[in-house]
Amino acid sequence: MKMKKALGLLLAGTMVLSLVACGGSGDGGSSDGGDSKEEAKSDGGSTLKVAAVETAYGASMWEKVCEAFEASHDGVTVELTIDKKLEDVIDPDMKAGNFPDVILRAVGGEKALTETFVKDNNLTELTDVLDMTVPGEDVKVGDKILPGFTENTIVNPYGDGKTYLMPMFYGPCGLFYNAALLKEKGWEVPETWDEMWELGDKAKAEGIALFTYPTTGYFDAFFYALLHEALGEENFAKALKYEEGIWNTPEAQQVFDVIAKLASYTEKTTPANANDNDFQKNQQLVLDNKAIFMPNGNWVIGEMAEAPRAEGFEWGFTALPAVEEGGERASYSFFEQVWMPKEAVNVDLGKEFIAYLYSDEAAEIFATEGGAVQPIAGMTDKLSGDAVTYYQIYDTGAVAVLDAFATTEPVEGLTTRGAFFDPVNSLVTGDKTQEQWVKEFAEASDAFRGALKE
Amino acid sequence: MGSNKGRGRFIFCCLAPAAILFVIFMIYPTIEVFRMSMYKWGGYTANKTFVGLQNFQTLFKSDKFYQSFQNTILLIIIVTIFTFAFALVFAAILTREKIKGQNFFRIIFYIPNILSVVVISAIFSAIYDPNQGLMNSFLNLFRGPAGAEDPILWLGSQKLVIYSIVIAMIWQAIGYYMVMYMASMANVPESLYESAGLEGAGRVKQFFSITLPLIWTNIRTTLTFFIISTINMSFLFVKAMTNGGPDGASHVFLSYMYQEAYTNSSYGYGMAIGAVVFIFSFALAGVLNAVTKREEIEF
Fold this sequence. Notes:
- The structure holds 2 protein chains of 2 kinds.
- By secondary structure, chain A is an alpha/beta fold.
- Helix content of chain A is 47%, strand content 13%.
- In chain A, strands 1, 2, 3, 4, 5, 6, 7, 8 and 9 form a 9-stranded mixed beta sheet that branches.
- In chain A, strand 1 (47-53), helix 2 and strand 2 form a beta-alpha-beta unit.
- Chain B is built from 13 helices and 2 strands, in the order αββαααααααααααα.
- The two termini of chain B are 43 Å apart.
- At the A-B interface, helix 1, helix 4, helix 11 and helix 18 of A face helix 1, helix 2, helix 5 and helix 12 of B.
């Protein structure tokens, strides 16, 4: 009897102990963060932690670039984390205090990783990287990068002339269409929005819709370009800072008119598939000659590579039509960003790594291995095939628009996409009128203005 | 006396593991949610600012929150009523009646439970497809040429989208509850039905006077399940089918919370929503429990 009791006690005891041990190690994990940081520091910073999101460009180009960096820097090891769901992979570690040194993730990702760091003022300033010499070359980083890419609200988020994010792979966004269809029908690619509406009526008579969009998220690039066309550089910059009354100007009104009219020319079933799971069905409308134009970026070609298509289908790409005859035509340049969290341990090595990303060697690997184009002068000359068409767009007179809405403190319950672009779905289905949308738009803009970063 | 002390220690040691686990994994996180709801925090970095109840103030002024609240309540009510009714009727038929292929039907009804929500969402997205979907193709038989010209946008219309999700959720849930009801119905002694039959009670009368009262405890339990699972499952369905769209029309509690906490850099605000959901579901379950309290009938 006694034996049994003792045995029971012993068993219970071990259970408690093992639990305590479990709890202990869990706690230890989070407090350990500080220690491992120290370790890395005392190591002389020879291990660089790089985290990059895996996009359509693939993972291998990053692996090769990291290898090449290791080869050119003695005693340096690059620990690369690359994943399609990068946030989910690095978040637990970050919560425990272990931050990657260098992160490649563009603003606009679903989990708003980059935005959160920007809004929280948690970035390492990278202005000095622009003055660094590219490793292995004798050019300064800032001189190699194409103009415009380092002077915009995305990379200088606080408007103080300091650079916190560095521009990486870019691609023009604009309207994609089936070039073969237009050729077959003898239709011209419209150069003004008026011509666009004419084409819309002609197409309607043949049962083809003028426009579709994958999801409302694609309207941001579209909107910036259109806004630039209508408002001009100066007011465009003001609008991005949510200036009071800017949305009541006749120029801004033009932008709203174009989008509302476009909504009336949009393929009817578009809103039903305009979500993250079914958006390819909307893209398929273009491949099937059921709709002519859609706003998109050059990744769509890879995305739809396996999809069935109308006979003779051929991708066409154009900048946005001008608001008035002979007016500016714009195309938004989407680009990714690389940046360092404030908590980065190997700051100097991280900056060296970023500078290296602009070297000819790295750019070559990115371009050949993944088809990713760095915003480096002369890169477009090295392109071949389809890619030429897209990057050429700026050579043929289209204005490149690079900016985005200014950074604000988080506004609870309000996102730019939710307030500005999601209502396009409602415009198409008729659940909202243009007036309602513009009113909501202006109200949201007021709220964002109140939360602007000083 | 000495042995009593030892006994107490023994009981303590036996209970401790479970109690500690419960505190670490249930109590502590719950308290954390309430604590975090009073901060302005992005979620990734260490910058946290204490803002008191400000998140709740914003929340109760937000139209979007009320819309998601409305959607959630609508789902809880409609999904519960329909699932409950169907599951009960199917369970009664499958246990009480002698029909061919009983086991076959039981399996068929239960299959949706084995499928993951993502798969179900994909199935229903295909069914709801405006052009090739089963739903519209079927309705077009009656609508004629108007159907092809003006397809019904099950997931694209703001008025319909929440009902489209209701249908998918009911389809998914019936089997599970049916099996639960069947288990307790099988325990009802056959003799009760026999004597009721001799007294001249029909099938329907038997169902309401014997079956229903005798499985009442089980029904009460499942009502709580309905609330919790509808709140949880609706998030999965919304996330996989519409992501809150079009224009935020299909947001439910948790999808709105997810959007704020994880995509709008407002983690603290998200936790405030979480706190409200927690209190709401607790209160609702409590009310339901109180309302459905009956004297237990033994058999």
